[in-house]
Amino acid sequence: MTQTMTVVGSDRAPTEQDALLLTRTQALLQAEPHFTALNTPTLSRAEVNAELTETTAGYLYLRYDVVGALPQEFWTHWGTHDRVAWKSGQITVKKTDS
Predict the structure, then answer these.
(1) For the chain, does the N or the C end have fewer beta carbons within 10 angstroms?
(2) In 1-98, where do the E strands start and end?
(3) Model pTM?
């Protein structure tokens, strides 16, 4: 897993909601057959784009290094339902009250 989550476009630190978005995104990816078929995907970068709202595509950028293959990149945001669009790398995570 990545050592730190960074925030670009602001001097603020990642929030609890940012950390929760990362955790829920990783859970969605672990349920995705394309992702689990990768050879040892390792999260190497997690960046919050503070210039976007948390419900805008691309709010959280994730890069996974993969042994023997090109890195896999994902752009995550909060939304009304869970969705992993494998080809585009767009991930929507359902925002709940918890």
Answers:
(1) C
(2) 6-8, 42-49, 60-65, 72-79, 83-85, 90-94
(3) 0.92
Q: How far is CA 79 from CA 9, 15, 38, 43, 82, in A?
A: 22, 17, 26, 22, 7
pLDDT tier at 3 (50, 70, 90 boundaries)? low
Task: Give the whole-angstrom CA distance, residue 20 versus residue 55.
Answer: 14
Tokens of 39: 């050879």
Q: Which helix or strand (DSSP H or E) is residue 19 part of?
A: helix 16-30
Our CA angle for 47, 42, 26, nearest 5°, is: 65
Other CB atoms within 10 A of residue 21 CB: 24
β-partners of residue 92 are 77, 83
